[in-house]
Every structure is written in C-alpha cells, then in structure tokens.
Amino acid sequence: MSRLASLAAVTSLVAASLALAACPRGGDKTPTGGGTGTGAGAGTGTGAGTGTGAGTAGGTGAGTSASGTALLPADGIACRALGCVYHAGAGGYFACTSGGAGTCFHFGAPCAPADGCLFDATDGRYKACAQIVEGTCAAWGAACAPASGCLFDARDGLHRACDAVTDGKCTRWGAVCDPG
To answer: 87 by DSSP, 3-state: which?
Structure first.
C-alpha cells in the first residue's frame, strides 16, 4: 500500500470514529417487550455468624492493655535527636533525618552543630564558628575538633571516625560512621 493510500485509510478511520463519537447516547432506558432475567443490585438483609481463633504475638513494644488502659506512656515516646550534618553539595549544615554508612540519606532544615565546630571547605579544616547563619558559618574562629568524633572526609564525601585531629584536620581516619 502506498503512503498516500495509507494516509487516506487513516483519515477515513478518524472521520468514522468522530462521527460515531458524535452520535447521541442515552435516551429512554426503560426496557420494552416482555421478558425475565436476573440482575444484581443493592439489597438489605440480616444474618448471624460465629467464629473462633487463636493468635500469638511477639516482639518489642509497649505491651498489651486492658480496656481503658493506655498502651503508651502519657508523656509520649521521645524520638532520638537529629544529627546536624555537613552537606558538601550545599556547603552547609542540615539536620539528618536518615543516615548511616558514612552518609546522610535525607536532609532536613539548616542547623548548627551543638559544639559550634564546623567543617570549612575552603581549607578542609574544622573550625569554631562565632556566627552561624542558616547552617553556614559567617565568622570563623580557631581550629577545633568536633565532639562527636564523626568527621566529614572530603576525599570521598563520607563521614568517618577520626582517631586523631591536629589543627582542625583529621590525621588518622577510622571506619565510616553514622553522621546522623
């Protein structure tokens, strides 16, 4: 079939489809003629049933409760505090909502490490920060060593345990650590 014939066939098919689509639908839905049949629809009814069962439970948790007794303590359950982690791509510190294996998988809002010791990407050292703004340092101070001991390793972008810090730089790296 030639290209022109194919185009004409497709055009005819489209025109027929549009004509059928424009046909009115609906109308009177009342059946005509005499006949019987089955159907489905909403109905009402009553019933009763019985059942038995047994189960086991295991694991950790708050335990079982008698009717009217709270399963959890009234003062709630505390979540662990989020870590404040250096994000190399953003050049600042952000809350780590999920981390492990030397990295943070999900970052939250900007934050400031509790000890005020931040990574300075310009020279690769940890320094005290006198003024933290939106997770970044606006005024650097003297070299320091983060209290957590889990430092950002610029060589591979992971956080590692640091066994020795000299002048704000890790001189003996350990295994990857959970920064969050």
So the answer is: strand
Count how many residues are written for the chain. Answer: 180
Residue 22, token pair as written in the block: 């424009």
Token pair of 153, please?
A: 């390793």
Residue 140 and residue 127: Cα distance in Å, rounded?
A: 6
Query: 10 phi and psi, to 5 degrees?
Result: -65, -40
**Is-contact 19 11, C-beta < 8 A?**
no
63-101 pLDDT, tens per residue?
Answer: 555 677 777 787 877 777 889 999 999 999 999 999 999
C-alpha atoms less than 13 angstroms from C-alpha of 2 in its C-beta half-sphere: 3
- Tokens 């059928």 found at: 20
Nearest of 102, 89, 129 to residue 113 by alpha carbon: 129
Contact, 176 vs 159, CB < 8 A?
A: yes
- What burial class does residue 73 get, using C-beta atoms within 10 Å of its C-beta: 0-12 exposed, 13-18 middle, 19+ buried? exposed
pTM here is: 0.58
**Would you tell me how many other CB atoms lie within 10 Å of the CB of residue 169?**
16
pLDDT digits (tens, 9 = 90+) for 106-155: 999 999 999 999 999 999 999 999 999 999 999 999 999 999 999 999 99
Q: Residue 55 has what pLDDT?
A: 43
Lookup result for tokens 């690769």: 124
